[in-house]
Each structure stands twice: as C-alpha cells, then as structure tokens.
Amino acid sequence: MRDKSLIVIAALVVLVAAAIGFAVGRKSTPEPQVATPPAATQPAVASTAEPVSAGDQIDGIRRGAAVNREIAPPLMARVENTDIKRNRAYPMQPPTIPHSIDNYQIDKNSNRCLLCHSRANADKFQAPPVSVTHYMDRNDQFLATISPRRYFCNQCHVVQTDAKTLVANNFKDIDTILSEENAKKAN
C-alpha cells in the first residue's frame, strides 16, 4: 500500500512540474529564428538605393503609385452597344454580351435575357439562342427549362467594353488555326 501512495505522489509531482515548466516556457519562448542562406549563395545586388519605408512601397495594382498616396480612379470603360459579336479570348470562354444590359432584371422570379435568347424567341429577336448546355443539370440530364445553375447569366457572361487590353493575348481559335494551315498547304 505504501508503494502505491508513493507512486501517486510521484506522478502528481511530475504533473505539477510539467505544468509549471509549460507555463514558464510559454511566457519566455524566444522569437523563432529564420535561417538565412550564407552570403556566398545569395545573388549579388548592385543597388545603392536606400531602404524604402513601408509607406513608400509600390503596389502593382495601383498603377505605380505609392501605397500611402490617394490616386484618382481610372475612368470607367464604356459598354459597347454595337451588337457585333467578338471572338473569344481563350478556349471555353463564355461569349461576351455585345449590348448594354442596364436595368435588366435577373433574379429568382425573372430573367430578362431569356426574353430574347430563349429557344422559343431567338428567331423572333434574331438573337443567338441559349446553348443546349444551359438546359443540362449537373448529371448531364436534359431539362425542359434552363438549369437553375445556369439561370443567372451575368455570373459568367459580361458586357463588351472599350477597356484597354491589360495583358497581351495571342490565342487563336481552332477555326483560325485550321484556315491558316489550309492556306499554307495551298501555297
């Protein structure tokens, strides 16, 4: 019996010591050291510039303006209302909308886009009909009406604007590539 009580006391002492060590260690934990590679492996930088303060750093999204400076926002791009369909900029891109959609109501009760683009009305309005993929559910089963997951058109389709191209793009659709190859073979 005496051995049993000694074991219990020893266990309590160990637990209390561990708790105290944990509490003390938490308060005095040193900052983690970040290992830096030796100077010989770092590339040489030929710069005599002074370090830049955090307020004067450049943010690429802000068009070269310092982060701590207020700049004028860029002008809003104008919506092209020409009804001329643009080529796609990348494979599987949803077609862009070649007309203004200001004041179009698209909510759970109404979808103004379907007035012209539904399969029943597309011929009357000379509008491209909604793709058959919009009538398929997630299990590739065809539905009688537009799939609920494809109902909110401007979730994928955007209006065409006169905005300046920010990133160069040399994408060619398959029709262009095939016609170029046929032209090369003909020569």
Automatic annotation (TrEMBL):
Compositionally biased residues, Low complexity = 30-50
Keywords on record: Electron transport, Heme, Iron, Metal-binding, Periplasm, Signal, Transport
Looking up SUPFAM superfamilies in the UniProt record yields: Multiheme cytochromes
Look up the domain of life of the source.
Answer: Bacteria
Q: Which InterPro entries does this UniProt record tie to the protein?
A: Multihaem_cyt_sf (IPR036280), NapB (IPR005591)
Q: What does this protein do, in the record's words?
A: Electron transfer subunit of the periplasmic nitrate reductase complex NapAB. Receives electrons from the membrane-anchored tetraheme c-type NapC protein and transfers these to NapA subunit, thus allowing electron flow between membrane and periplasm. Essential for periplasmic nitrate reduction with nitrate as the terminal electron acceptor.
Q: Which PANTHER family match?
A: PERIPLASMIC NITRATE REDUCTASE, ELECTRON TRANSFER SUBUNIT
Q: What is this protein called?
A: Periplasmic nitrate reductase, electron transfer subunit
